[in-house]
Amino acid sequence: TRKVITYGTFDLFHIGHIRLLERLAELGDHLTVCVSTDEFNAVKGKTAVMSWEQRAALVGACRYVDQVLPEKGWGQKREDIIREKIDVFAMGDDWEGRFDDLKDLCEVVYLPRTKDVSSTSLKTAIREM
Ligand code: C2G
């Protein structure tokens, strides 16, 4: 089994998230998504509209996703990759290069972001309705 992992907030689950997860699922046989907790979002300086429970449930309902775990801090990636026996770590390319230190543990892949959509742009669009 070729296992893939990714991390993120996944607020207001949108097409950019789906297009990323779809491509990640094609990189292997099993996809784990670690969804940032509300507490870790505060560390990241982000406030999600949806609770961790709702964000995790939406990601978990996605056909491309096999497992959802909490992301509680910046430092858990190495232990996650070792414990879950991950082969590929992948993120959108806004993170290009930022996690190359994981290359001793697994493949590290950055995929192009989907243009013109983000949780922030959705919030703005709704506010202007
Ligand atoms: N993404 C994308 N296209 C978009 C928006 C997001 O491909 N239009 C990708 C991002 O590149 C990221 C994932 O979707 O890989 C989740 O995005 P966020 O929820 O914004 O995650 P982020 O806050 O970047 O958290 O430890 C890593 C962090 O938790 C990443």
Note down, in words, how this protein is organized.
Residues 5-123 form the Cytidyltransferase-like domain. GO terms for molecular function: glycerol-3-phosphate cytidylyltransferase activity. Keywords: Nucleotidyltransferase, Transferase. The chain has 129 residues and is an alpha/beta fold. The chain is 35% helix and 22% strand. The protein is built from 5 helices and 5 strands, in the order βαβααβαββα. The chain has helices at 15-26, 38-44, 52-61, 77-83, 119-127; strands at residues 3-8, 30-36, 67-71, 88-92, 107-111. The protein has a 5-stranded parallel β-sheet with strand order 3-2-1-4-5. The radius of gyration is 14 Å and the shape is globular. The model has no long low-confidence stretch (mean pLDDT 98). It binds [cytidine-5'-phosphate] glycerylphosphoric acid ester. [cytidine-5'-phosphate] glycerylphosphoric acid ester binds next to strand 1, helix 1 and strand 4.
What labels describe this entry?
129 residues; alpha/beta; 5 helices; 5 strands; 35% helix; 22% strand; globular; binds [cytidine-5'-phosphate] glycerylphosphoric acid ester
Short description:
The protein is α/β, with parallel strands linked by helices and 129 residues long.
